[in-house]
Amino acid sequence: MLEMLNDFLSGKLLIALIVGLGSYFTLRSRFVQFRHFGHMFSVFKESIRGQGGQLSSFQALMLSLAGRVGAGNIAGVGVAVTLGGPGAVFWMWVTALVGMSSSFFECSLAQAYKRADGDGLYRGGPAYYIQHGLKLRWMAMTFAVLLLVTYGFAFNGLQSFTVTHSLQNAFDIPVQYSGLALAVLLGLVFVGGIKRIASVSDLLVPVKTLAYIGVTMYVIVSQIDLVPDMLTTIVKSAFGLEPAFAGLLGSAIVMGVKRGVFANEAGLGSAPNVAAVAAVRHPVAQGVVQAFSVFLDTFVICTCTALLILLSGFYTPGFEGDGIILTQNSLAAVVGEWGRVFISVALSLFVFTCILYNYYLGENALQFLFGRGRAALLTYRGLVLALIFWGSMQNLGTVFAFADITMTLLALVNLAAVFMLFKVGLRLMRDYDRQRAAGVKHPVFDPKDFEDLDLDPLAWPKNPQPATENERVELIHGAHQR
User: Fold this and answer.
1) Which InterPro entries match (predicted)?
2) What is the set of domains in the chain, with CATH numbers?
């Protein structure tokens, strides 16, 4: 029954939700992810520093990449290629392309409806924009419970299982020892709260991402003459035009979308929880940054893994095995035995930061449901650490199937909310676009123009001031032009 339910929800409903609504958001916004693509890099460059001890847009991006760039980029891509063939990679690209618009709007809304938490930081996400934007407390609580179960518990056990078994395969380390070490290290970070989680992610995410891209690019460049033919095979296989993979057309679409969503999380409602913590001048600035993270996750990192597997010569149609071993053996086939060790170490870093991200999502949901009670927080931390240790020694097939179901329900609730608040999202986007068209490089959000919305005056004060004198002059000049 669980398998049948999972097949319908994550194999059919999820595809319709992610691709269908993502396409709708793309068309209605006049292809916002393409129009702002070049702008993404300038926003990213300007977002390095926080304001007054608050988290910066860059730190929020690193937090979201901590979750997006995880086991899904290594093991998930391996699973997609194993079960769906090369064509699954194409459908991962499609999912990311339309998902960039979904991420843009969900993260912009999260910023607009964020709340000051009393400690000089912010909290936000789908539960908050559902409650304050739609006034549907029951729907907000449903989302928070699903988020807590999926990310706080199920996905953490899965991530622990993935990394401990990878270390066992590469170094013959017993899973109970690596599981215990992982739980202890994570516990030391958890006690520092969101600022310590952000600091660790700030350090590890760029290191793990650049190292992984560097090694996989070496493999790709060393076989660059094969890349054009392989890209052609990916596209042809996506439509059943490659004879060797013609029988995998349905699986290519399903696995491409499922594993693509698992990797980049666009539309699931997870990234808005960390997008909301950033101190930004305009909500849309964080929407632009988070759309960039979807691009980086799928078009760069997932594509690197896919080409690594497909160019290695290790993968053949009908391959049987798990995604981790496929990726490890593919790299080892090209660079030697150290490739297996590298994948295991890279996966360990990916999973470590991913669990930090999952933990924070669960903590955010917990605070929404029960407030800032210390007992609830300590109980939650203990349960997460226990589950990480337990998950390292289990076969989590059933848990993973259950997590797939709750992940699809998360997407259903979140995308329904984004759809109902889409007019608000368009207003935010048009306000941002209008200021940029008037020559303002860094648009500033003025809550007086949105007084009909339930915004937090502590998060968005009535008289916003640009950070520098140059920006004040720029804003006045833009107002005169308008």
Assistant:
1) Na/Ala_symport (IPR001463)
2) 2-481 (1.20.1740.10)
